[in-house]
Amino acid sequence: MAFTPAGATFVALFCSASLHGIYTVIFFGAVHLFWQRKGLPVSKLGTIIKIMTCLMYIFSTVHLALAMHQDYEAYVVNVDANQVFANQGDRYIIAQVSIEIVNCVMADLILIWRAWVLCNRDWRTVAAPCCLLLGTIVCGVGLINGGAKTNSSNAHFSDIFSSTLNAWELSFAAFVFLTNIIATSLIAGRIWYHRRMMQKANLRMLTGKYLNIILIIVESGSLYLLSWVLFMVMVIIGHPAFVVVVDSIAQITGIIPTLIVVLVSLKADAESQMSHSTSYFSRNHTFRVEPNSVINYEVNSSLHRTRSGNLASSDGTIANQWIEMHSSPKNEPIV
Fold first, then answer.
1. Which of 294, 289, 285 is nearest to 324 (CA)?
2. Is the pTM higher than 0.85?
């Protein structure tokens, strides 16, 4: 049996609803952390990240609501669902595409922000992703405009794979992909570098090598990249499953950045933990070994009180060098 537009849209709704359920759990976990004032400090940039996180969830929820309304119109009100879904220029679909593009831009901004933080707030390191993000916005506007022009009662589903729309779709996907591949490389490379430095200093902040691998994959946005690869493949081959991928991306676009924000808030990655810890350190440290490789550190300074944490080191000199190397400039907050 051929995969019809109606069948593709039905599967897309199921996938979108399932992913939105996962997104909801992650989002309210983030809201709880925000409410508890954990991780992200009260600052202008921190407030912007929180607002963007909330807006992305709201937009994703509206996207799902529009999809459900469209399916209701197609399967209950109208007789021929395939005829309804053939018109991909319908106002409900254009509204969903617009919401998805806005969410993509905000997701890329959060990814670029994370790369910027891990790269010691050096804007030169994220100049390329920022320029590519501008291209994403331009292509997004062109895609919305081109899709709206296909709105017709005599429209066909294949219209979304016309040469003009294909150019906008592939250009948009290419800009998003390149933006994410660069930001992902910066994040993954920086995390890998930090893990390596921790190993040299005999530091251990997370237990289990598999947990570390999962955190790197999730935080770097590799899953988000994979979804865009599938998007480009579906556009090139012109398969109706394109709709399934698009609606799934609408939710994944919000899930991955929100996961990054949650991980930062929980200080689950090494940079977050060390950035918060070094603001309490002085240049003179004393380390004493406790059982189970857990070491309490004492700060020998009249300006600081004794603190304890999960910092372990068999070489205080190496640890001090690592701390000084990765301390935030002027003790600024992580955001």
1. 285
2. no
